[in-house]
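Why does residue order matter? Because the sequence determines the fold. Keep that principle in mind as you read this record.
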Amino acid sequence: MTSTIRAVLKPHQHDVGGLMVGRVLPALAARTVGPFIFFDHFGSATLVLGKGMDVRPHPHIGLATVTYLFEGAIMHRDSVGSVQKIIPGEVNWMTAGRGIVHSDRTPDEERANGQNHCIQTWVAMPVASEDSEPSFEHHAAALPQIERDGVTLRVIAGTAFGAKAPTRTFLPTLYVAAQFAPGSTLQLDTEHEERGVYLVDGDFTIDGDAVPEHQMTVLAPGQPVELASANGASVMILGGAPLDGTRFIEWNFVSSSREKIEAAKRAWSEQRMGHVSGKPNLSRCRRRAMRRARRRHEECIGQDESACVVDHPLRRTPIIPILPSLR
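Structure:
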């Protein structure tokens, strides 16, 4: 391993909405990369006829959820009135702020098509923006696309390679989908303090070191690196500025304050966080999800504490221990 590689993160498998997901962040060796606090890789999955992703209405605070597709489609609905189908090459960016409820499902017309492949991430918000108004953005053609030495770069959020995405961000952010043609190379500069590279598929090297598929390489700060592929690869490049202090996570809630998480749990239990598409959230499912949340340990992501991760609502997965930051 070269001096430019700080850690290599392997995924843990989870069931989210009926699909198996490889969760790379958070991990023992790196709890966050820039503001990215969760990184999930869905698929590529062949769906059973008539089946699909079914993530029921659930709440968030203190983060933004980011969805980017390679195959298939997802229908997003939320409590601020958004109803948006996302297809490959587009991005959904949902800012939870003080609180939002949303669902993600495979559209009915896609359930016979058989494929789903996407990346979903959580981006933690800075302390000053945690109580901002919830909002939703969808971007397609407006995402910058750059061709550089045989590599096609789509800037999903933040700034990279001289371009800036229209997606609203709250901290300096790096998020790029890169498609490497056979024999192509790319220099990744040091614009962003923290950087990670995730190999979706193909063959790939970083400064000559081979990178396994479905793993994330966390790069050392302050050093440019050479990314290359002999036979072609699909890669996600992510990172940005480190978070501004400790974060607590419980269930789907992220905050710098334990008290805000407790308040969000009460608001969800009492149906005060809004409804998706004007329909009440299912009380039985909500009660079951909250019972699961109460059974788990509250966790912390910060400089001086260990932590454990609580998974999506309505699903039970192992708690993942997280060691203090590498920073």
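The chain has two helices and 28 strands.
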